[in-house]
Design goal:
2 copies of one chain form a homodimer. Chain A contains 17 helices and 7 strands. Chain A has about 350 residues and is of the alpha/beta class. The first copy, chain A, folds into 3 domains: about 1-85, no CATH class; about 85-300, P-loop containing nucleotide triphosphate hydrolases (Rossmann fold, 3-Layer(aba) Sandwich), CATH 3.40.50; about 305-360, Helix Hairpins.
Chain lengths: ~350, ~350
């Protein structure tokens, strides 16, 4: 199981509620037998801390499980791994479909392992239930990295809300770091709200763009450009080179119109090619410059603390809302009151008051 | 009381918990006597619908009151006014302090009343407790508009959270519209989160900027530029003209890099001067173009409906959070758990779970 750091072997570890097909044909007794072989939390923790990829994959599977019985075990593992999660750099990579995220990560990840780094690639893709794992799913695009023993690629947890997927990815980062991965790349699908979630769990946020064909005008969600610590104009090869350079000038100009970042960092614009590998080194150089700056001014640590607080509050507030909106009386009243608001019979505030009174009376 | 549409007379209507100084020196019986003279909800409603400014001011004072006994009366009035609130245009105006918001509104508002429009100017300024009414407070800057009988200027409700101030401003819009004001301008102080709140209650969002002196690089909050339906480079007079025109070119270029708006509207960049009045007419022309476009494609109505839903949900979620965070046990646990998260002893999710279990057990 030494080389189990590919997408396929990670998937074969899946367990819990969604039992692998092969299990479904076995008897309950056989399943019970298999289940008994599951390593304990302690075994998984020591495996992870020793850098064992199988232990890491199994623990992430526990985190991803929707089986309530796995939750306590998962939490024990996460809390044990937490003290070891500080020595990494977390890089978020976003961009619309077609921008070349997978090939960029392949080239960038391979460059990093060449420098002696250990690279984990995770993803936030709440849409993957529908698209059946649209990102990190196309292994052919990450052929080299998948075989690289210093890389670990794990597809996105699926079948959940963004909040659920984000939480699982975030906790998977902790485990990867405890397993010795010093560079964690989080890919986002580039649609929906996943960029914001990823931005809130990484140290450095990179936006991939391509030049030409009106790409500047559409595709990426509003507000994403302002989040970026770097914009990389990808596919800057062959006939695209001139256009990519023009786009670089344009984005550089635009970035100057944005307000200054709390980090003190001025976002950079670069071009890159996953084919010629041009620009890949420069991206890493930029990230190390960022690391130097934010370590010196302490922003790196401050941001991580803020992110922790953010996720704690976010989890709380999501659950408070869930409890409210899943209440059957509320659901009924909500429909009625929404209609009254729509028909200008009731102000939004008055409608909210009606619902809140019912909820807190329960 | 016919001319009571100035800031001063609006303020003199304040009542409720924060009793005017003069009342504090009177006996309880005298206060009771004064209170008895308060018009009923029905009287205020018919006054508002007849365009009576005194009734409007008194009703807004009820909305702004923190006295719980005024709430039901305020809600009755709001709900009665709702059906009359559809025929207006709501314009949000933001910009950092010093950009000339007051003088711009003075010039723009006066231009509009000259066209026969009835203009109400409201403000969202949750900081006004500290700054003692920093916006709309300096009457000398709106000398003309204050005296204009087709204008109604009301300073921001004070002493509250942003949520509270925003709710009150939003409901005041309804009353102004029911009183016949067809153009409602909402000013924001340009700091904090008030821009987002104002953006969520207006049809058209206008960002005021000034050119030169590094203004492009700082001051305005992140994300605001993307919200703008128009950017107006203000103070484009005298020596500033050339710089303002250069800034216009620059912003125009930058806006093209943003994703398309749901409204189908391409944000415009203009220059203006509150001294020479240049550009003021063009701003209004732009807004009428926007109105035409969004009426034709139905976005205008869709957006208002979405805003109503947004404010209903926002109110609900704010109250859910208040109930949670004001719980004394939670407050105690929150401090402990935040510390544990900070020290990497507990994951943010595990910490949230502890708090939620306590809350829902109560």
């Amino acid at each position: 199981m030494k080389n189990s750091n590919s997408k396929t072997s990670a998937l074969s570890e899946k367990e819990g509620v969604a039992a692998p097909e092969i299990l479904k044909t076995k008897s309950a007794a056989a399943i019970q037998g298999l289940r008994k072989k599951q390593p304990s939390a302690e075994e998984l923790i020591s495996g992870i801390l020793a850098g064992n990829i199988t232990s890491l994959s199994r623990a992430i599977t526990l985190i991803e499980s929707t089986n309530i019985n796995h939750l306590a075990k998962a939490n024990t593992i996460i809390n044990a791994c937490l003290p070891y999660s500080k020595k990494s750099i977390r890089i978020g990579i976003t961009g619309v479909p077609g921008v070349g995220k997978s090939t960029f990560i392949e080239a960038f990840g391979t460059y990093l392992t060449g420098l002696g780094k250990k690279v984990a690639v995770l993803a936030v893709d709440p849409s993957s239930t529908i698209s059946h794992g649209s990102i990190l799913g196309d292994k052919t695009r990450m052929e080299e990295l998948v075989k690289d023993k210093n890389a670990y690629i794990r597809p996105s947890a699926s079948g959940e809300t963004l909040g659920g997927v984000a939480r699982k990815t975030r906790e998977s980062i902790t485990l990867c770091e405890a397993a010795g991965f010093d560079t964690v790349i989080i890919e986002t699908v580039g649609v929906g709200q996943s960029e914001t979630a990823v931005h809130s769990m990484v140290d450095f946020f990179l936006l991939l763009k391509i030049s030409g064909a009106g790409d500047e005008l559409q595709g990426i969600k509003r507000g994403i450009m302002e989040m970026a610590d770097a914009i990389v104009i990808n596919k800057a090869d062959g006939e695209n080179i001139a256009k990519a350079r023009a786009a670089k000038v344009e984005f550089n100009r635009a970035l100057h119109l944005f307000p200054a970042k709390n980090s003190g960092w001025n976002p950079k614009v670069m071009t890159s090619s996953s084919i010629t590998k041009e620009g890949i080194e420069e991206v890493w150089k930029t990230i190390t410059e960022y690391l130097k700056l934010t370590s010196d001014n302490n922003y790196f640590e401050v941001k991580r603390q803020e992110q922790n607080q953010y996720w704690m509050m976010e989890t709380i507030e999501e659950q408070l809302k869930n409890d409210f909106y899943n209440n059957p009386t509320i659901q009924k009243l909500l429909i009625e009151n929404k209609k009254a608001v729509q028909n200008n019979e009731l102000s939004p505030f008055a409608a909210a008051t009606v619902l809140l009174e019912h909820y807190f009376k329960k």
